């Protein structure tokens, strides 16, 4: 007992002094195997489940778990619902798995990383009820070594908003057409976020380059420096030099768009409310345009990832937890989330439903999701963001030009795929 | 002869001699400490030390339970906790052994006093002596215990991490990590490796930054203080207050604000373009060279008032008759500064300068809140940017890529560099060599 207290003190000390190594207290239970309690026939099992959801979803989650209770008599569940967002939850699990929630949201990009660290529980029970409705891309994103670790419920990617006063529906289909149009002084034609590695890949992937192989699982592959990549890089160099282009840096593009001075901008579903408020009926949304890169007309293709529901590996009640996780991602609850939250459901039966197909933002998102490339979810993906951002910044600030583009692309690929010498 | 035997036995049975020679309570305390240490070692200590050698060998596992159709996890060893418990056990053992030696020497002292027919303190007298002639033990005990628990143990834990492969591919609880000797140091320092080609430039910039930031603030503050102190200036208090105001605002807030102001669409660029100085926006924080100058200048603006305040006090201490004499001899203000003010300042502030230099090497706030180490560059590896100091890069290594082993290694290197600087400059500085004072 004294030892335990000492250890607790030490752990907190280690966390305070953790500025040197940033270590977190990552206590795993050290008692042989995790006790799995299964209910005997006909008796109820007492279960306590801790759930983390974003602030705006507390109420609907509360309603969901009540429905779950009605269906599952075999559990007598006490719920603790707390507010932790989709970005903080994985980090918190990483820091201290013992105090983390049993069920929480994770972006699909982080699933493989957490699974690799042994922090996620595979989800198998009841999964077949929704599996058929999930697009292959969503399933791929949550599968590591043929085991599913998460329940995807909403795709997340960016597409293009445009101002109907400035551009027609025909014109927004092609980026070169957009850029060629003369909108007059003080007006910009197009804005995206080249200095952000979540946006800048659309030219490379669109032109047929691959990141981590065709399936996003090959840690040694990145072809951004081949001929197609060079053409894509050259396209970006020309684009940012064009005075009609504005970089969406610190929201600069967004504010011009809301002021009505910008033809088209790339952004995601999260911008829809503010753009609608600013532009009203003039707002249109479509998939990303095509562009003529290196002489070929190609469809720009960005990353798509998914918001998912995950269960921590050292949960005391793996059975109840994963059944609830699947339940939270089922059609009925996904629809509730869409109506309350605007999270476009990923399930195919819903994507084609009346409410969603009449929503032009949802339509643009789903359209783009079909053009998009699955965001690789291997842990190596962590080495992609910084170098790619460096490339975007280098091009935008003029440090990278046509002259040194090839060399810079080579070192980009080297940085992404390189490993420490073993 | 039996006495000899007792003396030998007291090495094994702590406090034996004390008990024999009348210090029963003291002896029993030693004995009970020994017994509890032995029990601790039997219960968990020995296992902790044994596991420390391997850092765990049982991987966390998963089994599919056909019956209910779910995967069940079997817990494995957690290398991180094993390392932590191991460190705790080592520290406890060292403390216990010191107590053992102390008990032996205390026992021998008691024996010798008894043989010489002198009085041996009983327990109450011992306690009283702690507030009297043995007060040093009482006063030192608190800081020593605090040091061991809050500094030595965590530090040892961090240092040991540098000799493991606790990186992004070996994250507990799903994976084990293991000892790798000095491989991390070799990877980081050897030339030709991608990591080394990041480390050396970052180290170079850290040194440049340290010296530039320290000396600009130092001389800037000195000049400012002298201007405010000089004879012709009115409202001295008012000016001082104005400058001290900048210190009242938390540093990171001003840094965030300045970072926005220096941005591409920030107020500086907007105004410069409106007034027609430039046609395009200047890359204050986006071009490597510009950004490096920007952080030094912004740091100057933030750091000058602190130095000014300190220097003002010292300036007033310089004996006025020195200046009087100099003036009579026909010295101008420049000569007076060179021959009187500056040598005096230099002499008094050397320790401050050294500590300032070290803290600037590790000036996390200024860099992180102003540029976050950006601009990024493809020349560097593992997320380091052109204005990253070793400290901010270390932070990125732990936060973004979970390479705790590299971070610990860099931490040790920073410590070594800082220690070398401190030792060299302290041992050569006048204010320590010649404490008699300035003459």
Considering the chains and any ligands shown, give keywords for the structure.
A: 422 residues, alpha/beta, D-Maltodextrin-Binding Protein, domain 2, 2 domains, 5-stranded mixed β-sheet, 18 helices, 18% strand, B: 439 residues, mainly alpha, MetI-like fold, 2 strands, 69% helix, 2% strand
Distance between the termini of chain A: 42 Å
**Poorly predicted runs of chain B:** none
The interface involving the most residues is between:
A-B, 68 and 73 residues
Q: Provide the CATH topology of the largest domain in chain B.
A: MetI-like fold
Gross CATH architecture of the largest domain in chain A: 3-Layer(aba) Sandwich
Radius of gyration over C-alpha positions of chain A, nearest whole angstrom: 24 Å
Helix content of chain A: 25-40%
Total helices of chain A: the number is 18
Q: Based on DSSP secondary structure assignment, what is the total number of beta strands of chain A?
A: 15
Strand order of the largest sheet of chain B: 1-2
Strand content of chain A: 15-25%
Domain count of chain A, please report it: 2
- Output the CATH homologous superfamily of the largest domain in chain A: Periplasmic binding protein-like II
Oligomer: heterodimer
The helical percent of chain B reads 55-70%
Give the DSSP E fraction of chain B (strand runs of 2 or more residues). Answer: under 5%
Radius of gyration of chain B: 31 Å
Report the CATH architecture of the largest domain in chain B.
Orthogonal Bundle
- The overall pLDDT average of chain B reads 85
């Amino acid at each position: 007992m004294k030892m335990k207290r000492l250890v607790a003190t030490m752990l907190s000390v280690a966390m305070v002094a953790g500025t040197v190594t940033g270590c977190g207290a990552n206590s795993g239970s050290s008692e042989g195997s995790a006790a799995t309690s299964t209910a005997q026939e006909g008796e109820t099992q007492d279960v306590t489940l801790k759930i983390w959801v974003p602030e705006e979803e507390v109420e609907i989650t509360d309603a969901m778990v009540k429905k779950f209770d009605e269906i599952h008599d075999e559990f007598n569940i006490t719920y603790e619902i707390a507010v932790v967002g989709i970005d903080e939850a994985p980090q918190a699990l990483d820091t201290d798995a013992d105090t983390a929630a049993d069920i929480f949201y994770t972006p699909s990009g982080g699933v493989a990383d957490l699974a690799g660290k042994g922090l996620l529980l595979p989800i198998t029970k009841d999964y077949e009820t929704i599996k058929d409705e999930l697009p292959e891309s969503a399933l791929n994103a949550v599968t590591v070594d043929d085991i599913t670790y998460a329940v995807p419920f909403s795709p997340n990617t960016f597409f293009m908003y445009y101002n109907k006063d400035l551009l027609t529906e025909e014109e927004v289909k092609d980026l070169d057409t957009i850029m060629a149009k003369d909108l007059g002084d003080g007006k910009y034609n197009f804005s995206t976020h080249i200095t952000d590695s979540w946006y800048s890949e659309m030219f490379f992937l669109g032109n047929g380059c691959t990141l981590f192989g065709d399936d996003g699982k090959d840690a040694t592959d990145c072809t951004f420096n081949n001929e197609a990549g060079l053409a894509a890089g050259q396209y970006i160099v020309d684009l940012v030099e064009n005075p009609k282009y504005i970089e969406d840096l610190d929201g600069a593009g967004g504010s011009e768009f809301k002021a009505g001075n910008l033809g088209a901008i790339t952004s995601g579903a999260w911008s829809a409310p503010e753009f609608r408020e600013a532009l009203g009926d003039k707002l249109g949304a479509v998939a990303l345009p095509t562009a003529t890169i290196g002489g070929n007309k190609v469809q720009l293709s960005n990353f798509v990832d998914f918001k998912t529901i995950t269960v921590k590996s050292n949960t005391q009640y793996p059975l109840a937890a994963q059944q609830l996780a699947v339940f939270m991602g089922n059609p009925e609850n996904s629809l509730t989330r869409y109506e309350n939250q605007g999270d476009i459901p990923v399930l195919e039966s819903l994507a084609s439903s009346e409410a969603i197909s009449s929503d032009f933002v949802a339509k643009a998102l789903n359209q783009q999701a079909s053009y998009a490339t699955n965001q690789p979810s291997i842990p190596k993906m962590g080495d992609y963001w910084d170098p790619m951002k460096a490339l975007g910044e280098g091009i935008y600030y003029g440090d990278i030009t046509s002259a040194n583009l090839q060399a810079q692309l080579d070192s980009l690929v080297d940085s992404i795929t390189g490993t420490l010498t073993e | 002869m039996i006495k000899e035997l007792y003396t030998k036995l007291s090495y094994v049975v702590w406090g034996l001699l004390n008990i024999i020679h009348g210090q029963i309570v003291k002896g029993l305390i030693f004995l009970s400490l020994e017994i509890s240490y032995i029990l601790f070692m039997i219960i968990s200590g020995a296992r902790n030390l044994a596991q420390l050698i391997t850092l765990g060998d049982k991987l966390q596992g998963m089994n599919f339970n056909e019956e209910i159709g779910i995967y069940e996890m079997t817990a494995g060893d957690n290398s991180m906790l094993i390392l932590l418990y191991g460190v705790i056990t080592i520290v406890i053992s060292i403390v216990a052994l010191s107590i053992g030696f102390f008990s032996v020497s205390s026992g021998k002292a008691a024996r010798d006093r008894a043989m010489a027919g002198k009085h041996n303190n009983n327990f109450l007298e011992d306690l009283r002596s702690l507030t009297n002639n043995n007060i040093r033990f009482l006063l030192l005990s608190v800081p020593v215990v605090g040091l061991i628990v809050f500094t030595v143990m965590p530090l040892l834990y961090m240092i040991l991490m540098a000799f493991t492969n606790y990186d992004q591919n070996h994250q507990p609880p799903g994976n084990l990590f293991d000892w790798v000797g000095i491989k991390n140091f070799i990877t980081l320092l050897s030339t030709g490796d991608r990591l080394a080609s990041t480390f050396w430039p970052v180290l170079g910039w850290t040194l440049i930054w340290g010296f530039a930031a320290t000396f600009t603030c130092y001389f800037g503050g000195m000049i400012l203080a002298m201007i405010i102190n000089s004879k012709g200036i009115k409202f001295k208090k008012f000016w001082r207050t104005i400058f001290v105001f900048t210190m009242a605002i938390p540093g990171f807030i001003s840094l965030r604000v300045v970072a926005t102001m220096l941005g591409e669409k920030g107020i500086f660029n907007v105004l410069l373009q409106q007034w027609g100085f430039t046609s395009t926006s200047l890359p204050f924080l986006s071009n490597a060279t510009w950004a490096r100058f920007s952080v030094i200048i912004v740091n100057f603006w933030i750091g000058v008032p602190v130095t000014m305040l300190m220097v003002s006090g010292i300036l007033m201490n310089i004996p006025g008759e020195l200046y009087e004499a100099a003036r009579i001899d026909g010295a101008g203000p420049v000569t007076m500064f060179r021959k009187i003010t500056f040598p005096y300042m230099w002499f008094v502030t050397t320790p401050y300068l050294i500590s300032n230099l070290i803290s600037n090497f590790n000036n996390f706030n200024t860099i992180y809140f102003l540029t976050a180490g950006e601009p990024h560059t493809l020349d560097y590896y593992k997320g380091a940017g052109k204005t990253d100091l070793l400290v901010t890069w270390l932070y990125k290594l732990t936060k973004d890529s979970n390479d705790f082993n590299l971070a610990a290694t860099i931490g040790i290197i920073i410590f070594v560099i800082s220690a070398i600087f401190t030792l060299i400059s302290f041992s050569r500085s006048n204010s320590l060599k010649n404490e008699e004072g300035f003459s």
